[in-house]
Structures are given as structure tokens and as C-alpha cells.
Specification:
Largest sheet: 12 strands, antiparallel
CATH architecture of the largest domain: Up-down Bundle
CATH topology of the largest domain: Rhopdopsin 7-helix transmembrane proteins
InterPro entries: ACER (IPR008901), ATP-NAD_kinase_N (IPR017438), ATP-NAD_kinase_PpnK-typ_C (IPR017437), HATC_C_dom (IPR008906), NAD/diacylglycerol_kinase_sf (IPR016064), NADK (IPR002504), RNaseH-like_sf (IPR012337)
Low-confidence stretches: 1-49, 310-322, 336-350, 353-360, 420-427, 670-678
GO biological process, one term: ceramide metabolic process
Strand content: 15-25%
Distance between the termini: 42 Å
Number of helices: 20
Radius of gyration: 34 Å
Membrane topology: Multi-pass membrane protein
CATH class of the largest domain: Mainly Alpha
Main location: membrane
Mean pLDDT: 78
Shape: elongated
Structural class: alpha+beta
Family: Belongs to the NAD kinase family. Belongs to the alkaline ceramidase family.
Length: about 675
């Protein structure tokens, strides 16, 4: 807060020109009135009565029609220009920076308050008093919606807007019946208080640092300016007689500086504008857009606004341009003292070119080294997650940005749309050096599906759930990522399956632009929604194995042996055991048992003539339906997934079995096992 109060004093000094300008304008209008006084005197008596009619329930301290013949309260009218001007600037910048339309609506509410207040103070008519006071309620409801719905997906659904609408209609109805301004003032004050409490609460979700301090200062300045205006408003009400005497003694034009209700307009306009900018900045931070947005200052460095950075690789203007994104860096991996350096990076990673023999590659552990620091990281998370998960996502990105400023952060296009990231993921896939996943095993499976060829090294973090593929807890992300960037990590190459689909005429069924579909856990062929059992002919290396009459068949990797295959009765296979696993799903005959075959074998699953349509699923995702005579071919993929392991987890697989499957222990609540799993 040390920097907040000097900023406040500078703002107060800079905004002194507003009432002083008002004094100058009033002096000019006085001359104008003297010139046109004869025309005024020519108005009929009836016209003068209509012009000077006061029907409002409020009459402020400024003398009516004293400073201008046609304006009831001149200074109180003129100061509303600031509401309209700041609102228009906010709308302009929001549209220019392509921020959300919710903020355009919020600024529109501020402008409506300014217009209503202008008309009210100009005429002091009751209908225009309502146009001043009721928009204050409505605009504040808009601000309330913006500050309560801050996540990547709607948290309160229809209930929040419906509740705010009910509140606004209720306040309007009651106010029109009781015609008591105190009711409006109390309800408005309660709503403003709720909004500010919520604002301070959300501030705690921003990680400590420079950005947090900037955001906090912005909120406190908004509070201080608005609170100062509230003090002016009360003084204008309580000490009106004394203020009028002081103004008369000072005289024009400087006596207008004592029009404290005009200062209330100035302070509430500035404070309200600052608060909306705070809300905009808070939202982009909570949604993960850390590095692309900065708080700028205009109009003599006193009007804040959000601005996208021109030097970002992720500007919308360059979302199809990968020339500015650095190429992948080479890496070195070693096994048992044998060093093998990757060639210059092309599309994908060079892990598949280390050795051409299966035996020396899959299931083995390697040490990763970077000759030069990696430059591009892809962060994977589910697009629709909890607020806590979104907050963690933001925290990781901000830490990476501050700790490794030269590291370019890439996220998926679906997540990017929600987090306002401005690069299309598909254009940068070939330049990713390593991947960070935040979530469970399903997030890693999703990562596998993004790469139809080589996969960069993957480091996975648990967000609280348990999984066989999760090597690190999110609490330790800083140390784990630092070790990866330094090259002090161990890699386990987990096998994937290459799956191809064929028609009965042996014509390939291509799914989109993909030729071979990659499966990390398993590929399954099952009856889907149909009640009849599937009839599938199973071949191994073109030799007929059996006719399976079952709900379906699963072909799994060692990694997938603890997933669907295990639920179907298959064995648990250690990830270093090089094999393919065929498991029947609820077979009609108990003689069909799971089978373990060599990783070099090719499996063919053909739909028999008497079978119905059969569904193909890869890692839990539906791919397509196969009809009679169509077949699925499965073989070991040439593109494994290099997963980062903790170096100290020499017996990690045994501990995973004990902890996740709860062998050798009672069935206790799994939350007691989480920290034990990641700390042992």
C-alpha cells in the first residue's frame, strides 16, 4: 500500500481541473445568460412555471436555477460528463482489446447512470430522479454478476442472473410504492458492500507477486476514491447551510469547488471505472491469461486500462504464424552410460530414432539432458475444471513466466478460448519441447491423443486424484519442472498401440487426417448400445486364434493393464514387460481367457458376418462403428510416450500397486493415501 497513497494524491491533484473547468464554463455561461436575458424575459409566465417546476423528492445543496436560467443545478449537472466520458472510453478499449462483452454492458450501465443523473440535476423532475437512481441499482447488479461469475464456466447457472433480476424488480417495485430515497440508498449500499467483499475475497486467489500487488493497489484506490465521494455526499447533506455561506463568501468561480455533490459525481465515476478495470484484470488473471495482458495508464497516466502486449508470440494477429516461435531444441538421452544424441529437431521428437530394435527401447529408463535450454512448453489441462484447478493452472503459468521468461507457453485451442490465450495450438505442435499435464490419468491419455506421431517428454502432476501415471503432486511442481528444464530427470518410454481400420474390401478407413490412431492404454471392440453379443474373429500375425463371442475384446499395453483390461479380468503387467495384452469382455465361454503376446505381434480383430455393428473405442473415446467384414489391426506403435519419472522411485510400480489398489491394507478413505503416494 506504500505506493497507493502517492497515487491517490496525484489523482486528486490531476482531477482538480474538473471543477475548475466547471467554474470557467459557468463563467462563460453567465455571460451567455446576460446576452440572452431579454429572450428569457420574453417567455410566457406559464412557460416559466413549467421550466422551474420541481417534483423530485430530493433537492441537493446547490441553489436551484441560480447559476443558469435553464439548468436547476448547473455544477451537479456538468460533473456527470465524467460518467459518460469514462464509460465511452471503457467501451472503446474493451472492444479494441477484444475483452468480453460483459464489460461493455458494465460500462454501459455507468453511462446510463451519468445520463440519468444529468437529466435529474438539470430538471429536478421526479421521473428523471428515477432515471438517476434506478440505473444505479441495475448497473450494480451487472457488476455483481461479473464479480461472482469469474470461472471458465458458469458456476451459478441461471440462478445468479435470475436472482439479480428478481432483486432489481423487487427494489423498483417497492421504491415506486414507498417513494423514500433512504430505501434506495440502503439497498444500493448493501449491494455495493457485497461486491467489494467478494472482490477482496477473489484477490486472495491471485498468487503473491508484482501482479497481485498491482491488482490490490487498483482495488484499494477504487475503494478510497469511492469512499471519499461518499464523505463528500454526506457533508453536502449535513452541512448544506454552512456550505452555501462559504460559497457566497468565496464567490465565483472558486466557490464552485465547494459543491460537494459534484465531487460525489466525480469520485463515484472514477471509483466505478477503476473497479471495472480491476474486475477485467482480475478475470483475465483467474482465467490464466498472465503474460499477454498488462495494466496501462492513459490521460496523463491517471486512467488505467488493459492492453495486450505487442511483443507476445501469442497475439491474435500472428495465430497462424509459427516463424516467430523458436524451433525445438535437441536433447540427449543416455542408458547405462551409452549416450545417444538426437539429430536436429524436425516434426516430432527423435526418441523413435534412438534405436531401431524394440528390445532396447520400450520399458527401459533413460536420463534426459538438454544441450540448450528448452524454449517451448505445452501445458495440458481439461477445458472444464473446477475453480481451484483453474487457479492452479494460472499459478503454474505465472510461475513459469516469471522464472523462465524466455520459455514460450502454449496451450490447447479449446482451453485457449476459455482462458483468452491467443495462439491456436495446432500450428505449434511440431515445436513443443516438453509437456506439462495438470489433472489425472485421463489428462495424460488426452495428451497421447493429440500426437499421432512422436511425443515430447511429458511430466504429469496430480491435482488431488490418484493414478498410475501421476509421478508428482502439484505441490511439488516448481522443483519438478526446474529439474526437468535442468535435465536432471529420468524417462520411462511407455508403449503405445498403432491402430488402423479397414473395410471388408481391405480399404483403409481414415479418421480425419490420421492414418494410424494411437492408443496409450487400450483399444476396445465392443457391442456398444446393442443388446446382442459381438462376434469377433481374432488373428495374431495372420494366424487365426479364436472366434470370440462376448461383449467385446480389449487389446491393451502394459500401461493399460491396470485400466479397462483389469476391470475385464485381465492381469496386471509391469510397464517394463514388453507385450500386448488381449482380454475378452464378458465372454460367453469361460474357456476364453486373457492372453499375453509379444510386442512384435500384429493383432487383427474382424467382425463376423452374424455380428451386429461393433463400436471401436480408443482410450475411452468412441472412434467409429464397424460393420460385418470390417476389421481392426493393432500393433506396437513406433511412437512411445516418454514420461518423466522421479529418480528416487526405483520401486514406484510396487508402491503404486499397494497404494492405488490398496493391497496389504484396509479400505480406508483414499484421501489419506494421496500425500503418502507422492512423498514416499
Amino acid at each position: 500500500m506504500a505506493s497507493t497513497f502517492p497515487l491517490l494524491s496525484e489523482i486528486a491533484f490531476d482531477y482538480m481541473w474538473l471543477p475548475i473547468s466547471s467554474c470557467a464554463v459557468e463563467w462563460s455561461f453567465s455571460v451567455y445568460n446576460n446576452i440572452l436575458s431579454d429572450n428569457r424575459q420574453n417567455l410566457s409566465t406559464e412557460s416559466l412555471k413549467i421550466l422551474n417546476m420541481i417534483t423530485s423528492t430530493l433537492d441537493w445543496c446547490e441553489e436551484n436555477y441560480k447559476d443558469h436560467k435553464c439548468i436547476a443545478e448547473f455544477i451537479n449537472t456538468l460533473t456527470n460528463i465524467l460518467f459518460i466520458g469514462l464509460a465511452l472510453f471503457g467501451v472503446y478499449n474493451t472492444a479494441k482489446q477484444r475483452l468480453e462483452k460483459r464489460f461493455i454492458v458494465a460500462y454501459g450501465g455507468i453511462a446510463l447512470i451519468g445520463i440519468g443523473s444529468w437529466m435529474f440535476h438539470m430538471t429536478l423532475l421526479y421521473q428523471f430522479q428515477l432515471l438517476d437512481e434506478l440505473p444505479m441499482q441495475y448497473a450494480t447488479c451487472i457488476l455483481a454478476y461479473n464479480i461472482f461469475e469469474t470461472g471458465s464456466k458458469t458456476k451459478y447457472g441461471i440462478y445468479l442472473p435470475l436472482g439479480l433480476l428478481t432483486y432489481a424488480i423487487g427494489v423498483t417495485t417497492i421504491y415506486l410504492r414507498i417513494v423514500n430515497p433512504v430505501f434506495h440508498q440502503v439497498t444500493y449500499g448493501i449491494l455495493v458492500t457485497i461486491i467489494n467483499v467478494r472482490s477482496y475475497y477473489l484477490l486472495g486467489f491471485i498468487p503473491k507477486g508484482k501482479t497481485h500487488k498491482t491488482l490490490k493497489d487498483l482495488l484499494f484506490v477504487a475503494w478510497t476514491i469511492f469512499g471519499t465521494g461518499f464523505v463528500f455526499w454526506n457533508i453536502d447533506n449535513i452541512a448544506c447551510d454552512n456550505l452555501r455561506l462559504i460559497r457566497a463568501k468565496i464567490g465565483k468561480p472558486f466557490g464552485y469547488l465547494m459543491e460537494f455533490h459534484g465531487w460525489w459525481h466525480i469520485c463515484t465515476a472514477i471509483g466505478g471505472y477503476y473497479w471495472i478495470v480491476f474486475n477485467q484484470y482480475l478475470r483475465v488473471l483467474l482465467l490464466g491469461d498472465i503474460s499477454n495482458w498488462k495494466l496501462k495508464w492513459g490521460f496523463f497516466d491517471r486512467i488505467p486500462y488493459l492492453n495486450i502486449q505487442n511483443n507476445s508470440y501469442f497475439r491474435r494477429n500472428y495465430h497462424t504464424d509459427t516463424t516467430k516461435l523458436p524451433n525445438k531444441v535437441p536433447f540427449i538421452i543416455t542408458q547405462e552410460g551409452k549416450g545417444i544424441q538426437s539429430p536436429q529437431p524436425i516434426i516430432g521428437t527423435s526418441i523413435t530414432e534412438i534405436e531401431q530394435t524394440v528390445d532396447s527401447k520400450y520399458g527401459k529408463k533413460y536420463k534426459l539432458k538438454w544441450p540448450t535450454p528448452p524454449q517451448n512448453v505445452l501445458i495440458i489441462k481439461k477445458p472444464n475444471t473446477t475453480f481451484t484447478a483453474d487457479r492452479t493452472f494460472v499459478e503454474v503459468i505465472e510461475w513459469l513466466h516469471e522464472t523462465y521468461p524466455n520459455l514460450n507457453i502454449i496451450i490447447e485451442s479449446e482451453v485457449a478460448e476459455k482462458f483468452r490465450e491467443l495462439r491456436e495450438f495446432a500450428y505449434a505442435v511440431s515445436k513443443v519441447d516438453f509437456i506439462i499435464t495438470l489433472g489425472g490419468d485421463g489428462t495424460i491419455l488426452h495428451t497421447s491423443s493429440l500426437f499421432d506421431q512422436a511425443v515430447p517428454p511429458v511430466i504429469s502432476f496430480s491435482m488431488g486424484t490418484l493414478g498410475f501415471l501421476l509421478q508428482f503432486h502439484i505441490e511439488h511442481y516448481q522443483q519438478a519442472i526446474s529439474d526437468l528444464i535442468k535435465g536432471d530427470v529420468s524417462l520411462l518410454l511407455r508403449m503405445r498401440l498403432a491402430c488402423s481400420l479397414w473395410t471388408a474390401e481391405s480399404k483403409r478407413l481414415d479418421i480425419g487426417d490420421l492414418v494410424d490412431l494411437q492408443a496409450m492404454n487400450e483399444v476396445s471392440l465392443h457391442r456398444g448400445r446393442f443388446p446382442n453379443l459381438a462376434v469377433i474373429n481374432c488373428f495374431v500375425d495372420d494366424e487365426f486364434l479364436t472366434e470370440a463371442v462376448a461383449d467385446g475384446l480389449v487389446v491393451a499395453t502394459p500401461t493399460g493393464s491396470t485400466a479397462y483390461s483389469l476391470s475385464a479380468g485381465g492381469p496386471i503387467v509391469h510397464p517394463s514387460v514388453q507385450s500386448l495384452l488381449i482380454t475378452p469382455i464378458c465372454p460367453r465361454s469361460l474357456s476364453f481367457r486373457p492372453a499375453l503376446i509379444p510386442p512384435t505381434a500384429k493383432v487383427k480383430l474382424e467382425i463376423c458376418g452374424e455380428s451386429r455393428l461393433t463400436e471401436v473405442t480408443i482410450d475411452g473415446k468412441k472412434i467409429c462403428m464397424l460393420s460385418q467384414g470390417d476389421f481392426l489391426e493393432v500393433k506396437m506403435s513406433s511412437y512411445p510416450i516418454p514420461c518423466v519419472n522421479r529418480i528416487d522411485k526405483g520401486i514406484a510400480w510396487v508402491k503404486d500397486i499397494n497404494n492405488l489398489l490398496k493391497w496389504n491394507q484396509s479400505f480406508v478413505n483414499k484421501k489419506h493415501l494421496i500425500h503418502e503416494l507422492f512423498e514416499t
